[in-house]
Amino acid sequence: MAESNRLRKCASKPRVFITTDIRNEPDDSQSLVRYLLYSNEFETRGIVACTSCHMRYAVHPEDVENIIKAYGKVIDNLNAHVHPENQYTPADEFLAMIKSGPALYGMEALKDDIPISEGASLLIERVDESEESTWVLGWGGANVLAQALYHLRKSRSETQVAQFCSKVRFYSISDQDDSGPWIRHEFPKLFYICSIHGWKQYTNATWFGISGDVNVDFDSGGPDVTKVKMEWLSKNIQIGPLGAAYPKTAFIMEGDTPTFLNLIQNGLSSPEHPEWGGWGGRYSLLELSGASAHFVDASDIVVKDGRKYHSNHATIWRWRDHFQDSFAARIQWTLTKDIRKCNHAPVVEINGSTGVEPLFLEAEAGSEIELDATATYDPDGDDLDFHWFHYKDVSTAHEFDVQTWKPKDIEFQRVDEKDGRKVKLVLPPAEWSAVDRVTGKALEKGCEHHFILQVTDRGSPPLTTYKRVVVQTTNKKLLGARKRIYESTADCLGIWDTDEYKSKFS
Question: Domain check: are 70 and 30 in the same one?
Fold first, then answer.
C-alpha cells in the first residue's frame, strides 16, 4: 500500500495567473478542469475572465466559478493522493481570486478614459507581492496584461516598470487580439512565449500539437489520436463530479493546456528554459542579441516505427500518451480517498539527486560518466521500466559555436543487467565538442548535453516520471585546437573543397 509521504513531492511551486476567454468555446473549460487537477503543484494567484478576437465584448467569470465549485466536491479525495506537503488549494480560496478583465477587444482597453479592470489590478498586485516570477497564462487575448502595463507606465518610473516586467513570464496561445504584438513591441525584454504565424493560422502553432491532428493531418502516421478523441475522453475524463464539468470538444481538445504543461513538476521540463522542452512543447529565443526575450516555435525530431517526424507539433505530441494517462489517473483520484485503488507516479533519484529539478554535472570531453538511478521507487509497489535517451534536439541548440554540425550519437551502456537502473556513457572528444567551429580555438566549455531518464510504472493507467541530467562539457587542457581558421560555417564543413564547387568557381 502506498504511503502519502512517499508520493512525489514538489519542493517549490511556480506562481500562476490565468487569463481565459472562457465561454468562447469549450476548450478553456476543459483546460481549467485539467489545471485544477494539477493545482497542488502550483501557487495560483489569480483567474481572470477576458476577451479575445473570438469573443470581443463579453467576459464570463461565472463559468470559472461553476468549475471550481465542482472541484470543491472532490478536493478531499484529491488530497488523499498527494504528498502531505503538496495539498490542494481550498475551493473558496480559488473563488476569491476570480476577477474580470476589460470587456473590450484588445487595444480598446488601453485608453486614458477606460478605467483599469479588476483583473489587471489584481495582476499588478500579484506580481508586486513577490520577488519570484509569476507565470501569466494567456488562454485568450492579452489585454489584461497589456492594460496592466499601460497603467503602470503612467504611474511608475521606467526602472520600476522594467523591474515589474522582469518578474513576468507570459505564455500566450497565439495572438488572439491586437494587444499581444503591442506588448512585444513596447516591452521587448518581457519573457514572452508565443508562436509566430499568420493571423488565426493556429494550425501552424506549436500548441496545436496537443490534439489538432483530430481535425488537421500533420506528421501523418506519427501522433496517435486515440487519447484525444471524445470516445476516450468520455470514458476516462468525463466521470465523477469534476469530470462532469469537462465539456465536449468543439474544435480541438484543450488548446490552452500547453501553457501549464511545462509547469507540471514531473522532472522533464525546466520552466525558465522553454528551449529545453517538455509536455507543453519546446520554444527557442527569436534572436540572440539580448534585445528581446520572445520565445517562438522550435522543432524536434521524433522517431516512431523507424520513421522520422520533424516539426514543432512533435515537441508536444511526442509526450501525448504520458500526459493523457496522467490526466486519467488524476480523474480517478477524484472518485475515492482510498489510496490503494489508484495509481501514483514513480519517484526518481539519480546519483543521490532527488526531486524534480535537473541534475547538473560538469565532465571533461571524452570522459566516462556513470548515472545511477538505483534508489528510484514506485510508491504503489509497481514494477518499473527505465528508458534513458539523449535529447539531441536540445543539445543541438547549444552547439552552434562548436565544431560539430550535429550532436554525436551517445550510447548508454547498462552497468546492471536487471532493468537499466544504472548506466554509463562516454562523452564525445574535445575536437568534436569543445572547439570553435570557425576559428579552431579550443574552448574551456563546449557542448551542453541533455540526457533524460524516463521511468514508467506498470500500474493502470501507467504513469511516467522523468529526471533530466544536464552535462556541461569541459576542456580544461584546451585539447583539440586546430591551426586553420575558416571564414564561414560552410567553409569549415569543407563544402567549398568539393570537386563540384571547385569546378564551378575556380
Answer: yes
Q: Which three cell numbers stand for residue 393?
A: 534536439
DSSP state of 181: H
SS3 404: coil
Asked if 50 and 21 touch (Cβ cutoff 8 Å), the reply is: yes
Q: To 10 degrees, the CA torsion angle through 453, 457, 461, 463?
A: -30
Q: How many domains does the chain have?
A: 2
Interatomic CA distance for residues 168 and 335, integer angstroms: 36
This prediction has a pTM of 0.95
List the beta bridge partners of residue 297: 283
Domain identity same for 113 and 252:
yes
Burial class (CB in 10 A: 0-12, 13-18, 19+), 406: exposed
36 lies in the same domain as 168:
yes
Strand order in the sheet with 422-426: 368-372, 422-426, 413-414
Phi, psi of 247 (to 5 degrees): -75, 170
Of 274, 312, 317, 279, which Cα lies nearest the Cα of 295? 274
Domain range enclosing 411: 346-474
H helix or E strand, kind and range, residue 474: strand 464-474
Q: Please, which residues bridge with residue 135 across strands?
A: 16, 169
**Do 29 and 249 contact (CB within 8 A), yes or no?**
no
Each of the 506 residues of the chain gets a pLDDT tens digit; together they read 468 999 999 999 999 999 999 999 999 999 999 999 999 999 999 999 999 999 999 999 999 999 999 999 999 999 999 999 999 999 999 999 999 999 999 999 999 999 999 999 999 999 999 999 999 999 999 999 999 999 999 999 999 999 999 999 999 999 999 999 999 999 999 999 999 999 999 999 999 999 999 999 999 999 999 999 999 999 999 999 999 999 999 999 999 999 999 999 999 999 999 999 999 999 999 988 889 999 999 999 999 999 999 999 999 999 999 999 999 999 999 999 999 999 999 999 999 999 899 999 999 999 999 999 999 999 999 999 999 999 999 976 554 455 555 667 899 999 987 789 999 999 999 988 898 878 889 999 998 999 999 999 999 999 999 999 999 999 999 999 988 887 777 777 676 666 665 565 55
